[in-house]
Design a protein that fits this description.
The chain is of the alpha+beta class and about 425 residues long. The chain folds into two domains: about 5-60 and about 265-415, no CATH class; about 65-265, no CATH class. The protein is about 55% helix and about 20% strand. It is built from 16 helices and ten strands. The protein has a six-stranded mixed barrel with strand order 2-3-8-5-7-6. Strand 2 (about 95-110) and strand 3 form a beta hairpin.
Length: about 425
Amino acid sequence: MFHPLSVYVGLRYVRARSHTFFVSFITWASLVGVCVGVAALIVILSVMNGFEGELRDRLLSLSAQVRVTATATAPAGAPGVAEWQNAARTVLGAKGVEGVAPYAELPALAVRRPEMLPVLLRGIDPRAAGSATELARAITQGHLADLTPGSGRIIVGQVIAERLGLAPADSLTVLVPTVDAGGAPAPKLREFTVAGTFEVGLPDHDATLVFAHLADVRALAPQGAASEGLRVRVHDALTAPAVAARLRALLPRSFEVSDWTQDNANYFRAIRIEKTMMSLILLLIVAVAAFNIVAMLVMVVTDKRTDIAIVRTLGASPPRVMGIFITQGLVIGWLGVALGVVLGLALALHVETIVPFLQRTFRFQILDAEVYYNTAIPAEVHWGNILAIAVAALLLTALATVYPAIRAARTAPAEALRYE
């Protein structure tokens, strides 16, 4: 099909200037459409990757990358202190693990008249490796070292502090709902002193988390009410599922291991669905441009019926005739794909410069600071996405050449030359 002569003639047709204005217009519209569609796909997916990375970083800022907890249905009952210590040593010695720290979590109510908010009271040991590195970076007021055993000090999220009107040195009552042996409500109360505030830019953390020393949370929690375990920090967050699988094989069955991809599966499933649907929608731009290539080639075939007939009478086979018009369509389509990849990469790699320039020039704000935590437009180029977009666009443009080429190959020389 792709005989050298077919390729040569096809390239001549691409460079030919004898087309009618409409055919030339359709040709350029097809090329520009493919270019714009590919560039839009690359830019949009890169921006969505950037937001996904931003969300991942914010989620992991105060969440455990890997968690080790007691199995709810452990046959020998809850692990004892010695078993937890052995588990911590085993985890710390595993490949890919950077630090291990104990924690305890307790659902509670933060009370400061007249407001009351549901919170998650999390006990940590500030001295433990990997326990609160990210928390220390997120603290806006106070110091992590203020959390000492028995001090009754806490560090609250910025949203909690704003809603309850809290400032450092203010007191906050924490209510833990429990029941007595007879089933009657018997809440436990303790007054804490606010030692500071933190902010990570994620409502799930800033509006719900309250940090205290591990010993204070254990002292407040009724027997078996707190959720305790080990928070594991790994060298690379993206390898957390592999590290979790490795720990499952090392630890006894009385322990359960989970990673951040399981804890936040709904977030990333929603993002994955959005990216898939957005890709399909933007791919329609390339599909429309491919239909333009079909229309353009059909008009070229109609215009070149006499040339096709002459070539056929000189001995060219139908496959060689097909090769001429497939070459012409591929050159136009693939040139559009190449230009689209270059344009898309140029825009995606400079989004953080282009967006502020547009906002200053046209005096508008894409992400309002009063609504969104993050007002910058991040972009993260994944070369796998670029390759997938380019291959999909190339296949669409290649398919667009098939029908016109078949139509050209079926041209009857006698019929085409009857009136010549």
